[in-house]
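U., I forgot to send this yesterday:
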Amino acid sequence: MEFSSAIYVTATLFFLLLHYYRWKILGAPKEKLPPEAGGARPILGHIHLLMGSRRRTTHVSLAALADKHGPIFTIRLGPRRRAAVVSSWRIAKELFTSCDAAVASRVKTRAVRHLTNNFAMFGFAPYGPYWRDLRRLVSLELLSSRRVQLLSHVCASETARAVKEIFDRWEGKKGESGWVMVDMKEWFVELNFNVILKMVVGKRLCGGTAAAGEEMVRCRRVIEGFFYFLGKFVAADAVPWLGWFDFGGYEKRMKETAAEFNGIVGRWLEEHRRKKVSGGDKEQDLMDVLVSIAGDPSHQFAGAFDVDTVIKSTCQGMILGGTETSSVMLTWMMSLLLNNRHVLIKAQQELDKNVGRERLVKESDIHNLVYLQAIVKETLRLYPVGPLGGPREFTQDCILGGYEIPKGTWVTVNLWKLHRDPEVWSDDASEFRPERFLTNGGAHGNVDVRSGQDFEMIPFGAGRRSCPGYTLGLHMLHFVSARVLQAFEVARISDDEMVDMAETGGGTNHKATPLRVLVAPRLPRTLY
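Result:
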């Protein structure tokens, strides 16, 4: 067996080298392409840059290359595949306006194929009738402002429950100092997990029964596996004819992750259909909405995939997007506030002035909390949850930034770099300064992150494939941060040690370490 494996590996390397040098000699592109970054390795090209590390994440590595090669450059992924990296708002604007139709499709990696039910998941579906129909349904029926408003009580009730859990822990464990330590990173994850699951499938899996707790652990493990594998490039992504050989067993594990996720959501779908048949008075969640309309033959997806696949994939996409983005952004926001205590104090003073300490902050109060809104914007600018946006693929030849981009080229926008451009954000571009977003004097007070038209800051993307869940995401960020800052005094474990701001990089930019903070109540006991 060892001898056979050695033959396979040797033969594979030989054909890879042959393919690589044939391309170098005979197939070099003649178009006026953007400059290619240095540091490419034989056969693999720049794939090593996409792996990232704790020392230097992918988006930081690509930002350094932009400083060297300019606002648009290319990297090679394997011997033939090229990807363009955009780091300028001007070129991003051209990409999402003049070239938007040509880059309306996501890249089709093996990971995406295996994890999304063969591209049935809305966020990864190819541009076409199926995607357009599903986009319309998601935007109008599932993530519209009206739907978010109807479900806003879920966010309020789950946040109140989570805040009380911290208060109860403080009462039971506070020491002589009057503080209790809480891992806010984990707290945000559990809170968002419960909110999104309650909205999507009517369940809360954190803090329930033992069986629900086990299901929660499995579901969270599957979601973590999904995002881990989503960013994995396998041999067949670089050299398609290697699809028969699963180096490292990644594709097998991707399929297992997808099957387990399908099994969990499939059981929830069966429960919803049984409850519908029995005529229960259960409040409608988003899966109920999908069940009621997904069988309509007027929808294009009725023929593209079976109805169950559409429902499961759509619910999976909303669970994945909702649990990841909001918890990650709340963690970064709290970390920034703890390292900039003057901003934290100013935010709490605004809450005291506009809401007071005799009642709880409500959703209707948010429009008066302009400094809190500026904090949210500044967090989205410095730590966009998807620092490299969603990679796209050119489906036709285009001119971008004065360069010829051939069909089949991948493209990604380095939002992390774009959001820190000193030509736009001045010399303090890397500093946390919410005042820049205040309308009464802030240089960027009129930036609208919802529209996707202010290209100097596009945390939710732009163009046809921009994120349709921005309304729900911003609602969560504003309301949860307001409740936490109103309810608790928060402080670093040590005044002499700043919160570690190391990033994980990857598709979703998590804080690399826990966020353990000291917490104490700041409201009357009756409000908890």
